């Protein structure tokens, strides 16, 4: 119970109510003490008036009047004359004097606390105003024992009453919190557990029903989160199915390309100059296609294979990419250029780096071709500090807003109609595996530039 929200709330409620009662208790006891002393003054005044009415009162009756008033003597001041009206032997000298004629509240509280804490018997003098203007002043002397006993009894009654009020109030608040807060929270927790058992089941998504604003906001947020998660899980399942299909297609395509590779080997023996010039590029293209199929099969089993790093001339890779794209340009007015130092050597997996640059150049060519306007694509590279920097720039129309927002998200960042949106995701993963970064440096009506950064550590 003490570890539950409702149990802790119950305990805190009792503590706070008792604290409030304690704050009320002190002035209440001070008020009780003041009323007690005023009552003694009033009784003493009545006794003194009885004596003034009949001056021949007997000593026994005088003693009885003082005993009923619970005082030792009474002094009454009338017409500026101070007169000892009633008197009896004093057990000891007067210890303190208290003036009840319009005393400050803090003084009354301080005197009451002092009275409670001081257990020694004392005789005190109390001064006050007579009731109904029956004189100018009245004072009495009395013992503090009966006063302290009465104050303690009153205090115990107040504390018992406070405890009863605290328990009753805390119980009501406990039941209210249990009904209005704890039970709805427990319902949300049960809904979360129920959803966690089968998150793919859309019927288990929570339906907000709470009338409490804050709890309703939590239910709305949870509903949104569960809806997105269910959609993501369904998409993940579809991607898994798609991955299985791609793996099967890649397997068959690899077999076909292997056969094509055998035919290319025969073509290489031709004496035709054009065939001799194009055959190596055809061999490289088919070899890369075979490697891509093998990588896809490996990805279907686990993930993209780790790059096999070695020192390669970047110009050779860029030239192969541009030569391949020149064959694909066709009738489009797209020019391809490179600005790569012939001696620039980078440490990378040549096949994976080829795929990255090829993907960026191909996307740029397709974007320019869709506009029907002439354009230019350039690939430049430099060694800058501790990194190699490769830029792929084009003068195309720039990326649309939606493509920029989901640029590196699978199936969402495609800028070309009909595109899968996987190219940039794969390219980014390949560069990350090299310890580098693939970023969109700029895009707009003047064109788009992608930035590839490869680390040079250890070189």
UniProtKB/TrEMBL annotation:
Q: Which domain of life is it from?
A: Bacteria
Q: What class of enzyme is it?
A: transferase
Which SUPFAM superfamilies does the UniProt record give?
ATPase domain of HSP90 chaperone/DNA topoisomerase II/histidine kinase (SSF55874), Homodimeric domain of signal transducing histidine kinase (SSF47384)
Where do the TM regions start and end? Answer: 6-30, 158-177
Extract one GO molecular function annotation from the record. kinase activity
Q: Which residues form a coiled coil?
A: 215-242
Q: Give the Histidine kinase domain ranges.
A: 248-458
Print the keywords alphabetically.
ATP-binding, Coiled coil, Kinase, Membrane, Nucleotide-binding, Phosphoprotein, Transferase, Transmembrane, Transmembrane helix, Two-component regulatory system
Write one Pfam family the protein is assigned to.
HATPase_c
Matching entries from CDD domains are given as: HATPase
What's its catalytic activity? ATP + protein L-histidine = ADP + protein N-phospho-L-histidine
Identify the EC number(s).
2.7.13.3
Q: What is this protein called?
A: histidine kinase
Q: Which organism's genome codes for this protein?
A: Seohaeicola saemankumensis
């Amino acid at each position: 119970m003490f570890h539950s929200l409702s149990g802790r709330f119950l305990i805190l409620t009792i503590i706070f109510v008792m604290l409030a009662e304690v704050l009320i208790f002190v002035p209440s006891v001070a008020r009780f003490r003041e009323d007690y002393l005023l009552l003694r003054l009033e009784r003493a005044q009545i006794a003194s008036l009885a004596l003034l009415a009949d001056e021949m009162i007997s000593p026994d009756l005088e003693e009885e009047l003082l005993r009923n008033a619970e005082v030792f003597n009474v002094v009454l001041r009338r017409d500026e004359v101070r007169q000892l009206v009633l008197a009896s032997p004093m057990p000891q000298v007067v210890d303190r004097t208290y003036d009840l004629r319009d005393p400050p509240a803090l003084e009354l509280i301080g005197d009451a606390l002092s009275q409670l804490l001081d257990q020694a018997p004392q005789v005190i003098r109390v001064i006050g105003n007579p009731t109904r203007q029956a004189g100018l002043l009245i004072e009495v002397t009395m013992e503090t024992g009966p006063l302290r006993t009465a104050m303690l009894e009153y205090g115990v009654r107040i504390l018992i009453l406070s405890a009863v009020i605290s328990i009753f109030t805390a119980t009501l608040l406990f039941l209210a919190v249990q009904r209005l807060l704890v039970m709805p929270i427990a319902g949300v927790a049960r809904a979360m557990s129920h959803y966690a058992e089968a998150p793919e089941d859309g019927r288990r998504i929570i339906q907000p029903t709470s009338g409490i604003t804050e709890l309703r906001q939590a239910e709305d947020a949870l509903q949104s989160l569960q809806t997105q998660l269910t959609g993501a899980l369904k998409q993940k399942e579809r991607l898994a199915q798609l991955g299985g299909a791609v793996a099967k297609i890649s397997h068959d395509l690899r077999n076909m390309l292997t056969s094509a590779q055998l035919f290319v080997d025969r073509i290489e023996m031709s004496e035709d100059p054009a065939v001799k010039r194009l055959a190596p590029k055809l061999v490289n293209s088919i070899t890369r296609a075979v490697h891509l199929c093998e990588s896809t099969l490996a990805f279907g089993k686990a993930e993209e294979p780790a790059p096999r790093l070695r020192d390669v001339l970047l110009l050779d890779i860029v030239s192969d990419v541009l030569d391949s794209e020149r064959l694909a340009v066709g009738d489009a007015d797209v020019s391809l250029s490179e600005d790569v130092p012939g001696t620039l050597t980078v440490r990378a997996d040549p096949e994976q780096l080829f795929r990255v640059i090829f993907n960026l150049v191909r996307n740029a060519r397709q974007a320019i071709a869709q506009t029907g306007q002439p354009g230019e694509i350039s690939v430049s590279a430099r060694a800058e500090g501790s990194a190699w920097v490769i830029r792929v720039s084009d003068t195309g129309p720039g990326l649309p807003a939606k493509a920029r927002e989901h640029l590196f998200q699978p199936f969402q960042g495609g800028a070309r109609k009909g595109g899968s949106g996987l190219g940039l995701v794969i390219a980014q993963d390949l560069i990350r595996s090299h310890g580098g970064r693939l970023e969109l440096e700029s895009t707009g009506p003047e064109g788009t530039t992608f930035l590839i950064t490869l680390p040079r550590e250890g070189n």
